[in-house]
Amino acid sequence: MLNPLRILLSATKSLPTRRCSGYVSRMRFTLQSGRILLFHRLSPLLQRTERGTFRPAAFNSSDVQLILERLGSDRSLLKEAVLLGCSEQNQAEFCLDLGELDQAAVEEECEGNFVDLRKSFFLLTGAEAPLVSKGQALLRWHQTSRFCSATGQPTHRNQAGSQRVCSSTGTIYYPKMSPVVIVLVSDGKRCLLGRQASFPRGMYSALAGFCDMGECLEEALCREVAEEVGLEVQRISYSSSQHWPFPHSSFLLGCHASVSPAHTQLNVDVTELEDARWFSLEEIDSALQVRSPPRRGDAPVVWLPPKHTIARQLITEWTDRQRE
Ligand SMILES: NC(=O)C1=CN([C@@H]2O[C@H](COP(=O)(O)OP(=O)(O)OC[C@H]3O[C@@H](n4cnc5c(N)ncnc54)[C@H](OP(=O)(O)O)[C@@H]3O)[C@@H](O)[C@H]2O)C=CC1
Ligand SMILES: [Mg+2]
């Protein structure tokens, strides 16, 4: 069976002109048979399921056309859909921002709500969080890359939305991510978590920081830990990576690192972090039990980033190792 993503990806590589019309019709066909995740000014549309959980709302193109018609919008908006990839079921997946339509009217038509992406991350539990995150990042990139940074001329997207091309020089631009190191530091018995003033109340996470130009992962990690909490790390091991849509599109490289139990005194840079603390295994176990962020008026409690974040993965890897 033909994989629509493979067709699209091979078709996006600088096609000879004579093959373009075939590509356009294939892309149209794929869009017609695919499912489209909707956004409004970069907030994804979520629907509540019968079980009370949330899922991103996905529609086929004829449903979206109908919605556009009902709301008095031009069907051509559908052409702005950006290819996200291909599902396990071999179905192409797209995202589309309906920011030019009235938000409440779209919500009513679609029986869902556009929810800020950060909030969505706490509501979505499954594999759809990364999909929504990718969609938002791609839509944001298109919205902020409309002009060539060298010539100032407009850029035009290719059919799939995987690149933009300067209308004057033909320079091709691709979506960008900023590399970030995220690290769980341990002194052997405790692990170190911090919080920025902008985090939701009570939430602690692993330390993170952007890699500077020319730095390798290890250098960025040592510098960030030294800058943020004044510690010198010893052993570094790589765990896994994750695309992260905030603040603009980061590529998180998750690591573990250790410090000598004799040198654990923290010197927190309060311009970067509101607080940083060592946590015992018991404290982490209780924080992992907190199922949802505390509400206003609830007693203060330490809680951790949601399941699909790399920070939480690093923390659970650490707790598993402590029990070995
Ligand atoms: N998944 C998770 O649980 C967590 C994820 N994160 C993510 O990690 C990333 C980095 O975390 P953070 O602690 O804020 O980073 P940093 O510790 O590097 O501090 C942020 C500062 O770095 C400077 N900076 C350098 N390069 C960049 C860049 N490419 N983009 C933006 N700012 C840059 C800015 O300062 P200036 O303007 O002064 O130059 C910015 O205010 C973010 O994407 C954040 O969302 C962070 C913690 C937990
Ligand atoms: Mg930081």
Automatic annotation (TrEMBL):
GO terms for molecular function: hydrolase activity; metal ion binding. It holds the Pfam family NUDIX. Keywords: Hydrolase, Magnesium, Metal-binding, NAD. This is NAD(+) diphosphatase. PROSITE patterns: NUDIX, NUDIX_BOX. The keyword Transcription does not apply. Its EC number is 3.6.1.22. It catalyses: NADPH + H2O = reduced beta-nicotinamide D-ribonucleotide + adenosine 2',5'-bisphosphate + 2 H(+); NADH + H2O = reduced beta-nicotinamide D-ribonucleotide + AMP + 2 H(+); NAD(+) + H2O = beta-nicotinamide D-ribonucleotide + AMP + 2 H(+). Residues 175-306 form the Nudix hydrolase domain. It comes from the Eukaryota. Its cofactor is Mg(2+).
